[in-house]
Every structure is written in structure tokens, then in C-alpha cells.
Amino acid sequence: MDGGAWWAGGAASFDTQAVSGHHFQPPLWKKPSGLSSPSRLRRKERTKFSCADRTNIMDKTHYTIMEYGAIRSAFSAHEVIRLTDERAKPKSNPVHPIKLASCSATGSGNMKLKPLNDTVSSLLLFFFLCSLHLHYSQAQPEANATGYPCSANLSSYPCHTFAFYTATSPNFLDLASIGDLFWVSRLMISEPSNISSPSNPLVAGQSLFVPLNCSCNSVNATTAISYANLTYTIKSGDTFYLVSTFSFLNLTTYYSVEIVNPTLVPTDLDVGDKVIFPIFCKCPNETQLRNGVNFLISYVFQPSDNLTGVAASLGSDTASIIDVNGDNIQPFQTIFVPVSRLPNISQPNVTASPATSVRRVERKGAIIGLSIGLGVCGILLVLLIGVWVYRHVMVEKIKEIEGDKERPLVGRGSGLKAEEVNLMADVSDCLDKYKVYGIEELRDATGGFSERSLIQGSVYKGSIDGELYAIKKMKWNAYEELKILQKVNHGNLVRLEGFCIDPEDATCYLVYEYVENGSLQSWLHGDRDEKLNWKNRLRIAIDVANGLQYIHEHTRPRVVHKDIKSSNILLDGNMRAKIANFGLAKSGCNAITMHIVGTQGYIAPEYLADGVVSTRMDVFSFGVVLLELISGKEAVDEEGRVLWMSARGILEGKDEKVKAKRVKDWMDEGLLRESCSMDSVINVMAVATACTHRDPSKRPSMVDIVYALCKCEDFFFDISEDGLAPAAVIAR
Q1: CATH number of the domain located at residue range(s) 418-513 in this protein
Q2: pLDDT tens-digit map of 700-730
Q3: Which stretch is the leader sequence (predicted)?
């Protein structure tokens, strides 16, 4: 519907302050019994009282059109229904609005109107506007109607955060539907929400943490709002108000939706329209980060809530919530709860249906008897399998420690496993994010996976619809890698475009963006005529550091790559670096594993000795890459000498000239011919030395490393290892 048509294309002047003091949104009125649908009313019926009523109103005050034709000025039952039910309708069934201009005007500018009692009209107007004000204050308070301002130049944006959401009946009682609404997979909701099985149904009111990518977005020349950008497809009957209130549960407001969709007319929505819904969020500022706040959880304050209860349930405190949101918190207002980590949500158990329970009771005796008979056999069988598995695992472990191996979990001919079935289900929740390719499509793209298309290892170059892609044939279970790749999105990580599972032998193929300039290893240690200058090397180091900082600090649970090395760093056409190969990556850290995998020369000592998995092992490997960039040498030379150990004593001592001479003797000869800044090289050398410290607790975090590398041109930079401690870096 054309909202402007109600008021003759905006011919009248309106002022919202004369009505209620703020923008408002009308409630949804139920249609009185006995009335036909507004869309079916005859033109004469729909205009019966509108002209007279509008004149009485317009004689007394002016108004602002906000949504749905704005003011419900006609108080007949027909008009109230039609004006308050401006929902999206299929294009095949348009509703034709009646324009104000349809009332004839006199020469004096006054309309010829059917007389109506002014007192009755005024009373109706008074009670109607009071009801609007009351309803709107209950649903979407003025405090956050337009969103939350932010500064686009803050380093804290963008960030990864969460919204507190509850399952609602009937449309959002499973993770798949909620994931579709928020454009995330079921796994991305189930893990932070402490749900063991993503496929289980939910119960109404069940609490969830939904991940958001929060950013600071400019809405005009002077205003920026902090929100997560979600695209919603309008369905029949949808309005901005309905979706923001009943689908997103007041995590946004209809007025904010209007602001970020300036080209859409709220009263003229068609089924299939794409609308941006800004989900309110905030990123912790530098002070909050220093104080240990990692997330500001978006939470809609309910009428029954109190700050003490909210703080206790989310692992925060009342003072911190007030510090972020102020003390004038209104019901249905989105507030931000500062936490250092997500609390562990207690989830209800999903019980079997009554019919299933009855059958189980009837068969209980038979099951107990049968289980006793099979129990002994089962125990013996498990013991035999356990012995075989133990021997097999030990053999594989020995093989993989000897070289650069990766564990195969799915072999040819093994058929689709449960993990692959789950993988298909989870990726199907976000098919708009990843494309599912057919195996014949990939064979055509790579010439039947020919040697000519082979890039390296099991990665092939293929052309699909004129675009180049890197197609990786997996030699192990792709479930974990895809599970992690669904959670990450950063310019310094190689982007996954889609996947394919060959139905014949269950081989999985991952289709990545094609990064045209190959690996960093080929540029540093290959036979290329062109060499990297220091500016390019420093830029590559910063790019890789940014990518690692993202997976360490902005994913929950944190992702550990576990295989950072120069061959897994790819360079695009602008010589910008992207981290590739998440095949060994692990979601979560500070774990212990008995399965040691990796590449000699890059493996952190604590991981090799004790199997400790943490972000500090990526820091160590990154330090080795920095040493490669400086020296041009490989992580392990032909005689088996490890690069990071040979670099340990170069920056020892207090004599700066001696240290500079050692660095010159050790660095790449090509850089010496380039006459690059020695201060910059020494600073990067200091970062590399700190990263490769034997004690993981003394290694800097990736946040500190990014800061240090960006400051490497500062000649006053503290190059001591102590200077790279978090406190020292923040102090600068």
C-alpha cells in the first residue's frame, strides 16, 4: 500500500509532538465479529465515516505519519480494522487505499463533511491515543527506539557477541528455524547454549545464546548505530512491528528497521521483499576489555525482571549493568550485560512422547532380561575392540610424529557416516552461505581431477561458471573443519565457498576461493625470480596476525589453528595474506590430546611434550613464520637444525650495535640489498623471539602482537621481551 496516498501525497502538515510526545506504533486490533475482511469492503463502506472524522481531528492538531498510514483517524469499525491491519499482502491481491483527496473541497479550503459530534470524536481520539501510548510503551520503549549510537572509528568494532533469545511457539521451537532467522547454523547456537544435540526440539521459553557479528553502521552523515545486520524476507502478513516484536523478540524496533531501510515503504511491503533488521548489540570498549569484559550480551529486559536476577543468571553484577546501561531501564528495552565469559545455561531434558513411554514400560521386563544375556558378550566384545583400537592408534601416532601427517578418519568406500549426515543437516541450515556442488560439476571444473589441475597435495584448481576456485579433496573427516569454518568470517582467512560429498565413496570436497599468488613458502623458499621486499613481508606478517587474533579473540569457543606455517599462508593478487587449511584446527583450547600432529619446526614444545592445545601454540608457530620472513630460511634446514632455536641468542645483551650486527648477519641477503629499515627488522625480530619463548605463559597474545607489529616503524618501540608483555603494550 502507498502510505502517502492516505494524506494526498503529503499535502497536509503534521507534528507528532502534539499527539503524545514521541513516535508511536499502533497496536494490532482484533476484528469485531460480523465484519468482512477490510480488503473486501466496498469503496463506499470504507469511506463512510473517514472524511468527517479526519476533519474533526485535523481541525485540532497535526500528526506525523510513521507506519501503516500512521494515525488511525477514522473510528468506525471498518476504518479501525483497515488502518491497523496494514500487513504485507501478495502482489496478486492488492488493497486500494482511499485518498484524502477523494473528499471534495470548498473554495475556502474546508472539506464538505458529514457532521459528527465533536465531543464524541474528541473523546474517542483521547482514549485511542492513550491506548496507543500504553501499548507502545509495553512493547518497544522510546529509550532504544532508534538504536544505540557508536563511533565507527573505534578499534573495538566489529566484534563477535551474543544475544539472549528464548524459544517461542509455534514458529521457533527448533534450532533450525532460529538459525534461519539469525543466519547462523544450529551448531553455532547449540554450543554456546549448552545443547548437546542440535537436532532435538526445544520447549517454549528455553534460553539460548545466539551469536551476532556486531558492527558500527552509519545510517546518515551524522549518525552511526551499533547493530548486527540481518536480512529478513517478508512473508504474507508481516509488518516491521510484527517481525521485530514477535520474531526477534524486541531485540530491535520497527523504527530502527525504518531507519536502516530508507527505500522501503512500511505500508507497501510485498511478499518476498528483503528487509534489513538491525539487531541491537555493542562491543566492549578498551576500558571494559582491560577489566576482563569480553562480551556485552544483548538482553531484552522483561517486566518481571530485576537487575539483581538478570546479573546473577548471566554471570554479571548489578553495578556493571548500570554502568553500561544507566539506571533508567524500562521493560522491553534491550540492555547489554557485561560478562567475561558466557554462563553455562541449564537446559531442560527432552522427554519421550507418551506413546513411546507406554511402549517402553510394557517392554521393560523383556529388555532387562535380554540385556543381562547380552551384557557379558558385549563386555568381551568391547574389550577386544579396545585392544585393537589401542594398537591401531599407537601405530598411527608413531607414523604421524615422524613426518608432516594428518589423520585420515574417512577412507574410500566407507560410506556415509553419522558425522556426514549431521554435516549435511547443519550446512543445510545456511545454504545461502555455502553452495552444495555436485561431483560431476567438480570433475568438469578440474578436468577429472587431472595432474594438470593439481596445485599442491590434494588441492586442485578448477573453473566453475568462469570463476576460479581451489578444490580440496579431503583425506580425513571434513566434519570438524566445516564446523569451524561456519563460525569464521574474516578477510585474512581463506573463504569457503561450498562443498561436495561424493555419494559413491563418501569423499568430501571443499571449494575455496582461489588465491592466485600461491603460498608464502613458495615466495620465500621457492625458485621464483621475484622476491618479497620488506614492506610486503611486514604487511604479510600483520595480515596473518590479524587473522589469528580474530580466531583467538572473536570466536566462542576460541579456535586454535594448530598448523600455522608458511605453506598454509596464501597471497592474493595484492600480496595480502590469508590463512588456509583448518584441517587440524580445534574449537576450544587448554585441552590435552594424545594425538600429536603438526609440522616439524613449527610445533610448540609444550604441545609436542604434553599435548597441550592452546592459542599459545599458534603464537609459537607464528613466531617461526616471522623468523622465516626475516631470514628467508626454512623452519628446518637440510641438516635438521630448527630455525627458532638458532635465533634465540641474537637479541641478547644490551649493546644495540652488537644486536644490530647479529641481525644483519642472520637476515635475508635480499633485504640487505634493499637497504630496508634495520629498526623495523629488529622490532619484528623481537616479536618473533617473544613468540617462540619456551614458556607459553611468557608469550604475548595475538592482540599484543598485532599492536607491536603495527608499531614496528616506531623507533622508540621497546624491543625487549618484557616490552611485549600485555601490560607493557597496553601502557604504550
Answers
A1: 3.30.200.20
A2: 999 999 989 988 755 333 434 444 443 343 3
A3: none
